[in-house]
What does this fold into?
Amino acid sequence: MKKSSPRKKEIGKNSRSERLVIVETYWEKIQKKLDSIREKNLYRQTKTYSGIDFCSNDYLSLTTNQNFIEAIQSLKTEFFLGSTASRLVRGNSESMEIFEAEFAEFVQAEAALLVSTGYVANMGLIDSIALPNSYVFTDRLNHASILDGIRISMANKKYYNHLDMDDLEKQLLKASSEDPNQKKLKVVVTETIFSMDGDMVPLKQLLFLKEKYNFVLVLDEAHALGVYGKEGRGLVFRDLTSDEIDSIDYRVYTLGKSFGLEGGVICTKKIGRDHLVNVMRPFIFSTAPLPLISKLALKALSLIRLMEDERTHLEFLAKYLKDKLRLHHFQTTDSSSHIVPILMENEMEALTFASELQNLGLDVRAIRPPTVPTARLRVSLNANRTKEDIDILVEALTKIRNSF
It folds into this structure.
């Protein structure tokens, strides 16, 4: 026994030494990975913001709206603390349920479920409804939260070409031939306005395919809420009839854009909400949003419904910017919204333009792979911007290009 004791210590020392080597090797690999990212001009870092806002998602400029700011100040002493638990324990509040009811009525849904972020809403929803043997059809340019939801669900992911309803139908037909008895669930998920390209899904064609192939449809209205449709209810209210809207199984919204807050909302049938409350892991196991959020969301909703002037102004700004960019021979996407990408030759050019613009007091950010396939400047307009701001931006872009 006495002879074996030193041996045990020696083994302990060796194990500790080996563990140290493993840790060092791990961090060396991380450093190499970061070096590789830098070499490709894809390195990212957090930066505090300054300058004229051309990059946030504060589309209706609610975060600088005096009525909204006063509402925040009046509530913060009463509701500034955390919710302390998940909504299924002690984190649920009356204001959350009131907001859910009002929001559901606003977007013509039976029920709504408030969660912590739009990312959680998409990821948790798709993971909850898609089974490992399901088919999930996703637009190639859908947001990472959608793709991550498909990934963790382990469903059969089927990409279709961006906004290409013919290609989607081909994929649906192929899946049907692989499943002749139609036992496997089919889910189609898409953004209605794409966050990095600013283009819009052809909703009428999509609803035609839904009726024909009987799939579950998930629409992400994150970038349409507040901006399109009657009272800012979303793109579906601009493009579809009431009956067509009722046929959509799930719609996802965010409070982190036009609402000027944070949070996500899933709208569906009452039975759909009941299902999510019972199986959606990010909802069940996450601390509930701050009680202040749902209180302020009610105020934001009341303001947004009346902001027709801001919506009209935003539409004017978007057209004016796109016309000026084309006039000055800048390449853009087929954006038909307030999100206007300016395509760049490569990642370095995007970074250079963004840096020079920020030096001139214009907050425009470079968006690069893997977020997008082609490097770009993403110009995101908000209601506080003016025609003169657009002129300054295009003049600066032209000046930078001419300096190359």
